[in-house]
Amino acid sequence: MNLMILNLEIQEFITKNIGTTISKLALQKNPFPNIDWICILNQIEAKTKAKDKLPNWFNTKNIIYPSKISIEQTSSEKTALYKASIISGENLIDLTGGFGVDDYYLAKKIKNVIHCEINPELSILVKHNFELLNATNISCYAGDSLVTLKTLNTKWDWIYIDPSRRNDAKGKVFMLKDCLPNVPENLGFYFNKSNAILIKTAPLLDISAGLLELQNVKTIHIVALENEVKELLWELHKGYSGTVNIKTINILKDKNETFDFILDAQTELSTFSLPQKYLYEPNSAIMKSGGFDEVSLFYNLNKLHKHSHLYSSSTLISFPGRVFEIQNAFPYSKTEMKMYLENTKANITTRNFADSVESIRKKWKIKDGGNVYCFFTTVENNHKIVLICTKIK
User: Fold this and answer.
1) CA 61, CA 92: separation in Å to the nearest integer?
2) Domain's final residue, options 69, 90, 106
3) What CATH number is attached to the domain comprising 200?
4) Tell me: the pLDDT tens digits for 93-109?
5) Residue ranges in 183-228 assigned as alpha helix (H)
């Protein structure tokens, strides 16, 4: 870690150039010849990324950033805050500390937090930042976290792990055994050190595949931010063998949308109908969960088709996702399309429909945008239909 980056003039230069195109800056002469120009450019680019994602870091003077990619891959403050709502206790060890955003928020619920990071330079950088952020109850350990776990010889209230995919695993189906650390392989050892484990994985991981690799899973949290699934959180408890709880959360600017259910519970099948007055599209966290029958039952909504995952009702209800009022519904045919949508402007969504959004736009010369929302989908009788809607929320 080059502490010269903390020079007042360099820090002012970095702040002044937040949001500036890096490729343009790179062509300029380095105004600070005593420090590597690439290092300064990296700080500008990474701090720009942190502005919305990590406001506490962005607004704290003299924070040092790792690479832009590390900032892109780290948790946001909002998702880290959600993790902190899951845990409690006296002590926690994070085996994959990284930039330390999760630990900063976990340390607000836990008295003593250990941040393990295999990269010694990153470990020093994070320790520096924690001091500036006044996170005094976090201790940083550099090196192999398995060695640290053995050396400390402590019983932990929680172990937290955010495994990363090995470089040679790219292109393969996402499996936990292809990540570092190898959680399935080390699970027995982890449970000797703690009765509770929280694992963060990318949303790419299939829930069924994860359950095959892991043991003692009590709850799976599916976390979306502004309707984009950011992470899956696997809550494991030693000796647990009951049903798996699914908790979905979509963190929005002004509220959180939540929907919970028990995985593989013996539930009735969804009810079905043709489109009624209102149309409901679940948020991305629910879509990832696969709890489509549970949504139909809990909200007393009819599905349009088993595989369409769109719902309808005659009266308006509050719903975790997008809600529309249906203005028109017609069969997907040349005559109807020419009459209602050709050469118009609309937002298009396809659900259980053979043609892609791009091909529909091209075929019928439909421009993107406006206040009209069109759903191309399949209903229960397997007929292809188009729904023209106005958005309620």
Assistant:
1) 28
2) 69
3) 3.40.50.150
4) 999 999 999 999 999 99
5) 183-193, 207-213
Q: How far apart are CA 3 and CA 182, in angstroms?
A: 35
Distance CA 20, CA 163 (A): 33
Q: How many CB atoms lie within 10 A of CB 226?
A: 12
Q: How many domains does the chain have?
A: 3
150 Cβ contact list (under 8 Å, min separation 6): none
Give dist(CA 145, CA 60) in Å, integer: 29
For residue 83, what are its two tokens? 């993790």
Both structure tokens of 6: 């903390």
- Name the DSSP class of 269: P
Q: Which alpha helices (DSSP H) does 54-137 contain, by range?
A: 55-58, 68-73, 77-84, 101-106, 120-132
The owner of tokens 């690439």 is: 38
* Rounded Cα gap, residues 267 and 286, in angstroms: 17
Dihedral sign of CA atoms 104, 106, 112, 116 in order? negative
Q: Which two tokens stand for residue 91?
A: 């002590």
Which pair of tokens denotes residue 138? 């976090």
Domain hosting residue 186, numbered range = 74-262
Mean pLDDT of the chain: 94
What is the average per-residue pLDDT within 128-148?
Answer: 97
Classify residue 236 as exposed, middle or buried by CB count within 10 Å of its CB (0-12, 13-18, 19+): buried
